[in-house]
Amino acid sequence: MRRIPWLGLALAAGLAFLYVPLAAVIVYSFNASRLVTVWTGFSTAWYGELLNDRQIMAAANTSLVVGVLSATLAVIVGAAAGYCLARFGAFRARWLFATATIAPLVVPEVITGLSLLLLFVAAESAVPFLPGRGLATIVIAHASFSMATVALIVRARLAGMDREIEDAASDLGARPFTVFFRITLPMMAPALAAGWLLAFVLSLDDVVIASFVAGPQSTTLPMVIYSSIRLGVSPKINALAALLVAATALLLGCAALAGRNRLSGRR
Amino acid sequence: MSAARFRKTLLAVPWVWAALLFFLPLAIVVKISLAETAVGVPPYTALIDHGALRATLANYRDVFADSFYAGAYVSSVKIAGLATILAVLAGYPMAYAIARAPERRRGLLLLLVTLPFWTSLLIRIYAWIGLLRPGGVINAVLESVGLIDTPLQMINTTAAVCFGMVYAYLPFMVLPLYARLERLDPALVEAAGDLGATPWRAFLSVTLPLSLPGVMAGALLVFIPCVGEFVIPDLLGGPDTVMIGKVLWSEFFSSRDWPLSAALTVVMMAVLVIPVLAVQRTLGEEP
Fold first, then answer.
1. Parallel, antiparallel or unpaired: strands B48-49 and B52-53
2. pTM (2 decimals)?
3. CATH number, domain containing residue B219
4. Which helix (H) or strand (E) holds B48?
5. Contacts of B152 (CB under 8 A, 6+ apart)
6. For residue A178, what are the domain limits?
7. Best of A99, A127, A130 to disrupt the B interface by mutation (most B CBs within 10 Å)?
8. CATH number of the domain to which A96 belongs
9. What is the total count of domains within chain B?
10. Is A23 among the domain residues?
11. d(CA A67, CA A61)
């Protein structure tokens, strides 16, 4: 096929558009000056200051716990939903099932946040012994939208795999649950690993939904970042941002290796 | 255990989950949108009070009668629409270039496009603040080469919001478009060429029409979250950038008017219900 020179140029420009701002943040996180745009020399002082910031470290800890728990929950529910969509054909109210599974991916965060908060408040007044809002409500809220991503990845993986092995197992007399746990689940494993990592990253990114459903005692890292961004650009936040970009890149690299680009639709 | 019971058990997990965390919350939002504000915890009146139904449409009257709210919906749809069009224009050449790249490079290129999306939106918007603000990188560069004397006001404008949205959601546009373009049979374009069509003509009458479902899917994935976006208009927008996500946020957190916030949410969902169902059709059914 004929090569079109400007096409590569457009791609390069698009990628530059995506990466230059992040590169700028990373570069300026090593700036010695407190003034964010004046370069006075290389320094890692802001990273050191970050580690000594109690509030930020506590919030980072909260975010990690929330991320691990919500990603695990999201994988369980998302895997079940993805499996149903991929393997059960036309079941009753399938369109409603698919909508409830996939919509959380695109519904604006303010809608998800507000509606889940109202749910939690209603639950608190209806069930007397329920603990108040806090870590658990953020975990549930995050899983409620990240399971959509897991479901899509699992469904894509299953759609790309032939069912002969599963069929052979049932022909040889294995019961459906045995087939699922002994054959299907191991075959889905890479998608589950990729889904878990992506759900973790999604949880680590969210500020809007967490702001709605968090209790007064539980503050996640993005909530702290958001309130300090509102006060202006600071070198400390640059350092934190650089660390988060690096962490995300690492996790995404792992997810890509695990899922072999399941997200991108290749199979 | 029988296959039927296996099916039922596996279907039950997501169904119960969706009932509790998708349908029930939406029902509660509708319920509270029919209540009145009250002093207390929770800060709204009960729908059934001493056996009598107490529902009011006053919140909806406020939403529709107040030109501030109506205007917020209109400008949200406008800004999100403009961002979507710009994302199509920026994303199409990128997706096309990746689809035409040598196969061994496509995975890496796709990873490069997706990587920023998985980086915190907050961080990415923060990065733009650093570039756009009056003492920021772009103004400093322009001033040092003598193009401008006074800093350009780039941040806190509606244009910055639009720009930020394209930046934030571009991967959502590129991925479905790429998936579509990759599956397109190159023989069709070659056939058009053999029949004497110029490359442009072949693109316009073969590639573009066949890729429209991808454009549609990408446009929906960009448009829907942009309509209700909060972080981008809050951090990049100015005082005259009125978007419904921001209005909802301040009604809820500053005015503490829960019933009105609920009504604003219900109307936003009504605006988005058709696009969301369309997403379900494209993403939910196409493997």
1. antiparallel
2. 0.88
3. 1.10.3720.10
4. strand B48-49
5. B134, B138, B139, B142
6. 54-264
7. A99
8. 1.10.3720.10
9. 1
10. no
11. 10
| Closest CA relative to residue A143, chosen from B119, B13, B17 | B17
In a domain, A218, yes or no: yes
Residues A229, B268: C-beta atoms closer than 8 Å: no
Q: Mind listing the pLDDT tens digit of every residue in chain B (287 residues)?
A: 578 888 899 999 999 999 999 999 999 999 999 988 877 667 787 777 776 777 888 899 988 988 999 999 999 999 999 999 999 999 999 999 999 888 888 888 988 888 888 888 898 998 888 888 887 778 888 888 888 888 888 888 999 999 999 999 999 999 999 989 988 888 888 898 889 888 888 889 899 999 998 999 999 999 999 999 999 999 999 888 899 999 999 999 998 899 999 999 999 999 998 888 888 777 755 54
Contact B88/A at CB under 8 A = no
Chain B residues within 8 A of A107 when measuring between CB atoms? 224-225, 228, 272, 276
Can you tell me the distance from the alpha carbon of A84 to that of A142, in angstroms, rounded to the nearest whole number? 22
Place of tokens 């009056």: B134
Residue B132 lies in a domain: yes
Place of tokens 């009598």: B52
- Flag whether A46 is in a domain: no
- Contact partners, residue A263, CB within 8 Å, separation at least 6: A152, A153, A156, A194, A198, A255, B114, B175
Give the separation between CA B178 and CA B184, rounded to whole angstroms: 10
Picking from B117, B224, B280 by the largest number of A CB atoms within 10 A of its own CB, the best residue to mutate is B280
